[in-house]
Design brief:
Elements: H1 30-38, H2 44-52, H3 56-71, H4 77-92, H5 94-98, E1 136-137, E2 142-149, E3 154-162, E4 167-173, E5 179-182, E6 203-204, E7 213-218, E8 221-231, E9 237-241, E10 247-251, E11 260-267, E12 275-280, E13 288-295, E14 300-307, E15 312-318, E16 324-328, E17 334-338, E18 346-351, E19 365-369, E20 376-385, E21 390-394, E22 397-401, E23 407-415, E24 423-429, E25 434-441, E26 446-447, E27 453-454, E28 459-460, E29 462-466, E30 471-474, E31 482-483, E32 491-494, E33 505-509, E34 517-526, E35 530-533, E36 539-542, E37 547-553, E38 561-566
Helix pairs in contact: 1-2, 1-3, 3-4
């Protein structure tokens, strides 16, 4: 089920919850379903949980509201008030809206107080009841991590230090379904397993990793485990294609015979700090507002933006007109299904599960234009269709297949005008080599991204441990191991490049999952055929372009040094 993006935001309000943080089935009123959905950021599983939590009356009132909306083809709040006022009032009650039950509002206009060393948002975002200054604020247990450079710069690292557990953590969905600050590995290396079902992961042994946690992923949730003792497994398995191309859990011959950590006892999800709410903080006289989450210990972080006119969360990306704009997130992209037997007209597809009957008739679609650099994003309108047959490209040509019963399909129509979305203008600030990006919206919202521009290379850099063991702002790495020869011994990589400039360097990380080190080298000649080791141990050609030979190492001291600190 989808709440139309122009519905007036409501909530928060108290909701009966289960121990896992999901609504208790059959307990939510219509307004509580709306509140619940408003906090889902268009996550389908979350929305379904909210709907299933509704009482019979609550679901009936919501269904009446959505049916009225679709019947009248409302595309804005004014139409909804004129055509469906009775249904909306029955659902939420006019007093619930008039009483100001929506997101917290700042008392006073926001102002720009100058450069934010933490890469923060608007200055003056003092939001009641929880003050929220800049990008992030620590709580009693979680403290934001920063890279403090030798030039005096200070950049938030998108991570926190857990004072109680004495570990770095990042926000993700925990085993109990709540978003919590979990100890995540620096590199996602959960690809090796110690048994033939590929469910019990192995982690490489390294001297820096003995005190770290391990994780398992299942159904979009993460379970955290203490590390077991190092051991050499009888065999190492991974999921890779068999001779017929079907992915199976099979022995992995690329893994050397070496010790791995196994998973020990599971750490209860309640050991980690949870997010208590996630919602926009509405600023006066603004269209673009900070999207914020707060934790149970009082930590607060701006995690994105909210467009109150379009009623979408949004991110600053390059639009179809080449300008940076706040484009809607959480909307589908074109699927791999087509509406015609020639496979020329792509369809959008969204899986709504058991609530397929409540899928909207109109949906926005994101489409990418890679013909220019950087890639541009166009936001298309679409209209729901109910095909009896869809088509898919196969090696045998364009083949008809049955539609997935739980999918809602959409024709992709004209692109929305780029000017429908708020424009941000970028300038660079700072006297040192690392420049702070400052993005200012037409309505005055300000974003200071945490990844600076290295003026020597005219490209973004990220903070990581270099080969000399020191923290530095380095070119973005390539994580895949590609080779330029049939024996898979000569490493190749794509040039480090985020702003469509030839930086002249290559960057990649060693596979140390808890403390990776980044190597930077000069680029060599272009490679026409790229090879990669498959899990069966064979060196095979892969369809990969833009790869270069790895040249001489670039001295780590070439890059600006920093220290990771928390406050």
């Amino acid at each position: 089920m989808v709440i139309p993006p122009f519905l007036p935001p409501v909530g928060p309000t108290d909701m009966p919850m289960t121990g896992s943080g999901t609504p208790k089935p059959g307990t939510l009123s219509c307004v509580q379903i709306l509140v619940c959905v408003n906090q889902c950021n268009r996550d389908t599983a979350c929305v379904n949980g909210c709907v299933q939590g509704g009482t019979t009356t609550g679901r009936s009132q919501l269904s009446a509201l959505l049916s009225c909306n679709e019947k009248n083809a409302c595309k804005d709040e004014k139409c909804l008030e004129e055509k469906c006022g009775r249904e909306f009032n029955a659902c939420v009650g006019r007093s619930a809206v008039d009483a100001g039950s929506g997101p917290a509002v700042v008392a006073g206009a926001a102002t720009d107080a100058g450069s934010k060393p933490d890469g923060g948002g608007d200055a003056g975002e003092a939001l009641e009841p929880n003050p929220f200054l800049g990008r992030v604020m620590g709580g009693t247990r979680l403290k934001p991590l920063y890279a403090n450079t030798t030039e005096g710069g200070k950049f938030f690292m998108f991570a926190f230090w857990d004072l109680e557990l004495k570990t770095r953590c990042e926000f993700a969905t925990a085993a109990d379904g709540l978003i919590r600050c979990l100890p995540m590995p620096d590199l996602d290396v959960l690809t090796a397993f110690d048994e033939a079902t590929c469910t019990n992961p192995l982690l490489p042994v390294h001297e820096a990793c003995g005190m770290n946690y391990g994780i398992k992923r299942a159904n979009g949730r993460i379970s955290v485990f203490k590390l077991g003792p190092p051991a050499v497994p009888a065999a190492v398995y991974s999921v890779h294609p068999d001779a017929s191309g079907v992915e199976r859990c099979m022995p992995d011959k690329t893994r050397p015979t070496e010790p791995f950590y196994t998973m020990g006892a599971e750490v209860p999800a309640t050991s980690f700090v949870a997010v208590s709410y996630r919602r926009p903080h509405i600023l006066p006289n603004r269209r673009i507002h900070p999207l914020v989450h707060a934790t149970t210990d009082g930590a607060t972080e701006r995690i994105g933006w909210y467009d109150s006119k379009q009623r979408y969360t949004c991110a600053i990306e390059v639009s179809g007109d080449g300008e940076r704009r706040c484009l809607p997130g959480g909307i589908p992209m074109p699927s791999n299904r087509y509406s015609d037997a020639s496979c020329t007209q792509l369809l959008g597809a969204v899986n709504w599960g058991s609530d397929i009957a409540m899928a909207p008739n109109v949906q926005l679609i994101r489409a990418f234009d890679a013909s220019s650099c950087p890639t541009r994003i166009n936001i298309h309108r679409s209209e729901r269709v109910m095909p009896t047959m869809v088509y898919s490209r196969t090696s045998a040509g364009c083949q008809g297949v049955a539609p997935t019963p739980t999918n809602a399909y959409y024709t992709i129509k004209e692109a929305t005008p780029a000017t429908d979305w708020v424009k941000f203008t970028e300038v660079l600030e700072g006297a040192g080599r690392l420049k702070q990006r400052v993005l200012t919206a037409d309505d005055g919202a300000i974003d200071r991204p945490s990844r600076p521009i290295d003026s020597m290379h005219q490209d973004q850099c990220f903070f990581a441990v270099a080969y000399d063991g020191k923290y530095r702002c380095l070119p973005f790495p390539n994580y895949r191991e590609n080779f330029g020869d049939m024996t898979c011994t000569k490493r190749v990589s794509g040039a480090a490049d985020t702003r469509c400039k030839d930086t002249g360097v290559i960057s990649f990380q060693t596979n140390r999952w808890c403390a990776p080190a980044t190597r930077v080298a000069s680029v060599g000649a272009a490679v026409t055929t790229v090879f990669r080791k498959n899990e069966g141990g064979m060196c095979v050609a892969v369809n990969r372009t833009g790869q270069r030979e790895v040249g001489a190492d670039v001295a780590p001291t070439t890059y600006v040094e920093a220290k990771e600190m928390f406050e």
